[in-house]
Amino acid sequence: MRLATIAFLFGILLCQILPSIPDISWFLLLLPLFAFIFSPRYRFLSLFILGVLWATWRADIILAQKLPSALEGQDIKITGTIINLPSQHRQYKKYSSWQFDFSPLPFKDWLNPGILRLKWNGNPPQPLRPGQQWQLTVRLKRVHELLNPGVFDKSKWLFQNRILTTGTVRTKGEPRLLSEPSPFNIDNLRYRLAQAIRTELTDTPSAGIIIGLAVGARQWITSTQKTGLQRTGTAHLIAISGLHIGFIAMLTFWISRFLWRYAGKAALWLPAPYVAAFFSLSAAFLYALLAGFSISTQRALIMVAVALSGIVFARKMALSQILALAMLLVLLWDPLSVLSAGFWLSFGAVAIIAYALSNRHEPRKSPLKKWVGGTLTTQFAVVLGTLPIVLSIFGYVPLTSIPANLIAIPCVSFVVVPLTLLATSVILFLPELSSLLLHIAAFTFDTLWFFLEWLAGFGIWQQHQPPLWTVLTAMVGVAILLLPRGFPARWLGIIWLLPLFFIPPPHPNRGEVWFTLLDIGQGLAAVVRTENHLLLYDTGTKNNGRAVILPYFSAKGIRHIDKLLISHDDSDHSGGARNVLKNFAVDEILASAPEKFQGSNAHLCQAGQYWQWDGVHFKILHPHMNYQAKDNDRSCVLKVSTSYGAILLTGDIEKGAEHHLVERYPIDLKSDILVVPHHGSKTSSTNNFIKTVQPAIALFSAGYRSRYGHPKKEIVQRYSRHHIMTLNTAQTGAIQFQLSDEGISGILARENMRRYWHQR
After folding, report:
1. What beta strand segments (E) does 372-415 contain?
2. Do residues 48 and 11 lie in contact, with contact meaning Cβ atoms separated by under 8 Å?
3. Which residue from 522, 601, 599 is spatially nearest to 561, judged by alpha carbons?
4. Spatial CB neighbours of 722, under 8 Å, sequence gap ≥ 6
5. Backbone angles phi, psi at 478, to 5 degrees
6. Phi and psi at residue 591, in whole multiples of 5°?
7. Which helix or strand (DSSP H or E) is residue 276 part of?
8. 155, 758 Cβ separation under 8 angstroms
9. DSSP strand pairing (735-740 vs 673-675)
10. Using one digit for the tens of pLDDT, what is the confidence trace for 78-126?
11. Phi and psi at residue 80, to the nearest 5°
12. Which of the four pLDDT bands, split at 50, 70 and 90, describes residue 532?
């Protein structure tokens, strides 16, 4: 069972690294091979192929729901139902926007639409609720999220949640509410419960946490709370997952078995463990349903069902066999589970506990000492065992995870969760009792929060994304360190762990430049690295600073910025600066509007400024002192020169500034790589400017199906007429170049990182 499950798992994993899935019809030729599944010699090979086939078939079903290219960007009228819980966001301090999932009815041009992720700017005529049926006019596009090395791949997350299409509601299309939710709609019940809890805990800091534990909705949890939980390694406590569902199942089992003993003659023909298993599974199922039956709760429910089956069928199974059976059923139910970090962390944690506690013969101890010792051993084993996985996925490890979880797990599992669920179950019928229970649960968590907030101040261990081979060697080291006490030379496991922390990330050699134009959509952010220094040119929007630049720098092991150059004050160039300055040490800021950065070492960027790092020359070419023009034309223009080539970064300059540059620098403008001015708008990239720069490669930083239409078709054609290679981040993802003694070499993220869920 165990090896068979691993073979099936490896087959599914192979499918997840493919740039495109094979035609499912080809697998028909392999069907005769599955006869060998009953042969011991070929069983594992057959299961491996079966895993590939199963994952391919399931992925193919989802991919069949993609938006027809003819409908992309068009206003179309659809009818459908709101599913899951809509979330409301305050935007621009003027109006709210809504985000919700929508299940449309099939229509002539799209027979299999699947699930849409829609955004509604402004306020709908009626508040959005799950189960409502609407007729909407929408403008849709295929999922095409930003793609950068080391940054969360949102396309993968959306695909795992069966979302291949996003869009916006066109309010000019006169949206119509066709019907209100059915009283039996589970999502509407969750929505009503969430609103009732919000009303009851209006001014309570932990209201969002309580709602998350009750109905699995995290939209009311504040960013401060999320950060604090992440920094203490307790973020798993606010998710309805294996820990809470398993606890509810266990608690229900104990209570049911105890009460059934007093059932009289009924206990003779139906043993208490059977009754307890039935009620335990029912409670776990209801809790999963209350959480929206999300992927993580489905996985947890399957694991609980497998564990209870051993009781029902009176079969004694090793924990490793139970774990293998649970994994096999999870993979059969949803092979795409392997795309989530939760899959690896949940199964990994259980496997580590089983490994750390199995076949251990401890001397006799009092029950209290035994419980404390077992709890400490379990926590230490889980933290140490999952360390390589956590570090490779998230890039950090909380330093206070063990003490935080030692207090938080029993507090949340034994007090907050039971009180919350009991209060939720009666909130619509006994509001006074529910109010009392909710306030006790909230008070308990608020008290716990003071402790967690204090622990969060101790920080986290953060480093670059480790290479895969160091993760594998670290897992060997973990296995050695967790061997039973008395095993000789367990300390050697530490040596196996060292590469995980001490193998430095790659960096340029002297005289080389590594240049990255990040994929940030509409905006600009570029990173220039030399052997010992780093320059960040622009920071994109406010969201880009948090969602792209910070994780990219963390994955590369970057903690310090020598120069931050903000070309001009437009929000798509300077919006992320605050997040960058908050999270990284910045030696100097150069900007066309340095007054925006009061309190920092900020200076006005002017033509003639020059510096040299590690044999690489940097020179500001524009604007000159007293140069008068609109904001775009006052963008800071930077030239980076090495003996291997040159790069020209131009911000949002337009025709006037281009003409000025051509006149002053008829020779110095020449560069091998040009970051095209103003994202390829019609107001820039004059013929004379292009002829003077003479780039071999022109880079456009633009968003997919940009509302501004960048880059303009005629501008792209203009560069092509000059025999210049053009690359657009909207099509390529992040663009990386290395200028070294081997010449200029490039890597495109959408080619290097392509997976089958990245739609073409």
Report:
1. 396-398
2. yes
3. 601
4. 690, 691
5. -60, -45
6. -155, 155
7. helix 272-290
8. yes
9. unpaired
10. 999 999 899 987 665 556 789 999 999 998 889 999 999 999 988 888 8
11. -175, -165
12. very high
pLDDT tens profile 188-226:
999 999 999 999 998 899 999 999 989 888 888 888 898
Q: CA separation (Å) from 437 to 157, 644, 743?
A: 35, 69, 68
Q: Which pLDDT value is given to residue 339?
A: 92
Dig out the tokens for 546 from the structure: 């948090």
Average pLDDT over the chain reads 88
**Strongest mean pLDDT among 344-348, 432-436, 449-453, 637-641:** 637-641
Q: What global pTM score does this model have?
A: 0.89
Rounded Cα distance between 406 and 753, Å, is 39
Token digits for 694?
């003479």
Give CATH for domain 513-752. Answer: 3.60.15.10
Q: DSSP letters along 529-556, please?
A: E-SS-EEEE---SHHHIIIIIHHHHHHT
In angstroms, the CA 430 to CA 419 distance is 14
DSSP state of 665: -
pLDDT at 654 over 90: yes
Query: Residue 125: which residues within 8 A CB-CB, separation 6 or more?
Result: 175, 177
Cis peptide before 711 (omega within 30 of 0): yes
Residues in contact with 245: Cβ distance below 8 Å, sequence separation at least 6, in sequence order:
284, 287, 288, 297, 300, 301, 304
354: confidence class by pLDDT, cuts 50, 70, 90: confident
Contact 246/216 with Cβ under 8 angstroms?
Answer: no
Closest CA to 693 of 676, 680, 711: 676
Contact 82, 41 (CB under 8 A): no
* DSSP string covering 169-196: E-GGG--EEEEPPPTT-HHHHHHHHHHH
Q: What is the pLDDT of residue 496?
A: 93
List the beta bridge partners of residue 515.
528, 737
Tokens of 208: 């969002």
For residue 748, the cross-strand partners are: 735
Note the pLDDT of residue 472. 92
Q: What are the boundaries of each domain within the chain?
A: 2-63, 69-181, 186-233+400-457, 360-397+466-503, 513-752
Q: Which long-range contacts (CB under 8 A, 24 or more apart) does 252-257 make?
A: 252/276, 252/279, 252/280, 252/282, 252/283, 252/284, 253/277, 253/279, 253/280, 253/308, 256/280
For residue 294, name the pLDDT band (cuts at 50, 70, 90). confident
Token digits of residue 97? 């926007």
**What percent of the chain lies above the pLDDT cut of 70?**
94
The topology under which CATH files domain 69-181 is OB fold (Dihydrolipoamide Acetyltransferase, E2P) (2.40.50)
Are 540 and 701 contacting, i.e. CB atoms less than 8 angstroms apart? no
Q: How far is Cα 291 from Cα 299, in angstroms, rounded to an integer?
A: 13
| Residue 365 binned pLDDT confidence (cut-offs 50, 70, 90) | low
Pseudo-torsion of CA 121, 123, 128, 132, nearest 10°? -90
Residue found under tokens 């000059």:
722
Residue 476: C-alpha distances to residues 94, 230, 390, 745 (Å): 55, 26, 16, 36
Q: Is pLDDT above 70 for 27?
A: no
H or E stretch including 745?
Answer: strand 743-748
Tell me the C-alpha distance between 85 and 130, whole Å.
Answer: 6
* pLDDT for 372: 56
Q: What is the mean pLDDT of residues 570-593?
A: 92
